[in-house]
Design a protein that fits this description.
Blueprint: E1 5-6, H1 27-40, E2 45-47, E3 57-61, H2 73-79, E4 83-95, E5 99-105, E6 108-117, E7 120-126, E8 132-138, H3 139-152, H4 163-177, E9 187-188
Parallel strand pairs: 1-9
Antiparallel strand pairs: 2-3, 3-4, 4-7, 5-6, 7-8
């Protein structure tokens, strides 16, 4: 089932999400629905807060990035078929010199900006079978994971922009929160009165 994606301005996107246990109600169904929702919106990542649930879970499928001709063959190979669910994730460390990359977000449609992030992360997480992993990722893969990880920490990519950029985007962000935007996927807007 395709779930509505929560738009910028909803308080759930600002909460630090809570850990879950393997007996979380209908977890398999939620994971299936989130994959379907993400693919329907042409995303490469989706976090539970983006579907209104303040739990520490997100998913990533970077396969669409593998077609980018600007990437090296090794980078394309790394991204192709990378599909994972991250539960109760914790970034243990971030390393390297920060680099800019243009990011967007399904909760903030039609806004893309360059964001600085470190190129390498080590993250501990549980997969959907609740097996624990500690892995190191780099490059574009690390960036997608960092972006989704921020969601479970209550952080949006727009928080990482300069004060001037934030000021310039303010009215566009307000329009998104009021539903004054056209998107080709289901969304839930925080500042639309019920019954309209």
């Amino acid at each position: 089932m395709i779930l509505p994606i929560v738009a910028y301005g909803d308080p759930v996107l600002r909460k630090k999400a809570k850990d879950i246990t393997s007996d979380y109600p209908k977890l398999d169904e939620l994971i299936t629905n989130m994959w379907e929702t993400m693919y329907n919106a042409h995303g490469v990542g989706l976090a539970a807060p983006q579907v209104g649930l303040s739990i520490r879970m997100f998913m990533v499928d970077t396969t669409p990035f593998a077609d980018d001709d600007e990437l090296t063959e090794a980078e394309q190979k790394q991204l192709d078929g990378f599909k994972k669910v991250f539960i109760n994730a914790k970034i243990e460390e971030e390393n390297g010199k920060e680099w800019d990359f243009n990011e967007g977000c399904l909760s903030i449609p039609d806004i893309r900006e360059d964001v600085k992030r470190k190129p390498e992360i080590t993250i501990t997480y549980l997969d959907e079978d609740f097996k624990e992993h500690t892995e190191t990722f780099d490059g574009l893969l690390a960036r997608v994971i960092q972006h989704e990880y921020d969601h479970i920490e209550g952080i949006l990519f727009t928080d990482k922009l300069s004060t001037l950029k934030k000021r310039l985007l303010k009215s566009r962000l307000e329009k998104i929160s009021k539903g004054k935007i056209n998107v080709d996927y289901r969304m839930r807007f925080p500042n639309i009165k019920k019954g309209r």
